[in-house]
Amino acid sequence: MTGKQLVYGPTFDEMLYPDRIDPGVRAKALAAAKDDPLSPWNLYNITWRNVDGRIYHVVLPKELTGIDANIAVLYSKDFPTRSHKVGATYSVTMEHQIEGDIEPGVHTLVWPSTGNYGIGGAYVGPRMGFESLVILPELMSRERFEQIEWLGAAYIKTPGCESNVKEIYDKANELRKDPKNRIMNQFEEFGNYRFHYHCTGNSCIEVARDLAARGIGNGKIAAFVSAMGSAGTIAAAERIKHEYHDALTIGVEPIQCPTLYWNGYGGHDIQGIGDKHVTWIHNVFEMDAIACIDDIESKKGLQLLTEEAGWKTMADRYGVPEGSIREMSEIMGISGVCNVLAAIKTAKFYGLGAADTVFTVATDTMDRYHSVMKGLTETYGAMDETEAAVRLVSIFQGAATDWFREGTRHAKQSWFNLKYYTWVEQQGKTVEELDAQRDPEYWLGQQAKIGEVDRALQEARG
Fold it and tell me: What is the pTM of this model?
């Protein structure tokens, strides 16, 4: 087989600061964002910043949250796939291409996923010249499969729902037997971790300072709240802790699948999180607590934010600014609402006030959940204004502090030990490799590779 010409994209630092990209390349990327969404130039649009350098974020109105603390949300609707997961898929691909173990035209990239990472792989792979194959549970939303096809990738459906990751791994291991396949496993690939540590973490820090200059918060980050799917996003908290040593890291799980909360299991429908295992790239020793959120409340909360009855109720009865209503309707998916509810829960649990800011992330947008919302209406009936008011008060303002467990030393050891059953017993890691992760230097070493990767990429680009 003969490979194709290699396609290179941005460094980690250029994803964080796109104004450092060569001006000619940047101009082509911005033009492609408007006129050619499937162009490889869009790899240079993988960033948390808009054309003016502003980081995509909102501060949620207190008329919705019902608390004094500020809830800041970084949103990813303006990434090339409308999800920040494209940053992880690009980073993983870029690192492997630099290492020389994947070659376009020779290898097929296989993306084990429960949704947005697979869509990211369907985007990045073909843009970099690779055939891409996404492994996805059959009960994911119809829109996910449609987007994968539109982006030029194939998919395989595995049994089950969001939390059936074992079945995904089994299919990946079967495909691994073909030497042309390369498994790009987000749950163990540190390119995923590095993207969020560097790009997401530093973006949060910059927003916190910007908010303080605007009179919002004290310039620090009280807590970073993130549900764990691959546990890529929550790596941002490690960068935040290096800047603000008292910042809290709060992981989030579905009540229906509380794996770390109490070694629980089960199926749920917060697509993108709660995958019934502890991932290889998750530094659980840095996590201060676990919050669990109900999947039905997450879906009903999304419906409140994205349907007319909810908009009218928020504006007329509770005084939520119309600009905020419009923004929230455009930036939220199910997991984003889940993260917001956990952020409110966190602020209440720790008694945070007006000087404090809790950061979280809206991972994707409503465009991949219309079928889920339709099913919700079929099950519970249409949401009228009375029901919308009930949801606002009970789900958002009434978010309780139950299902919240702090990370004692014993708890963190227990969370860590859960890795053994997936990674040593099932996925071929050694006990020595696992035990190495107990040392903080292991994680510092992973962070230090960001500079090494950037230098190698710059050299490869010439």
Answer: 0.96
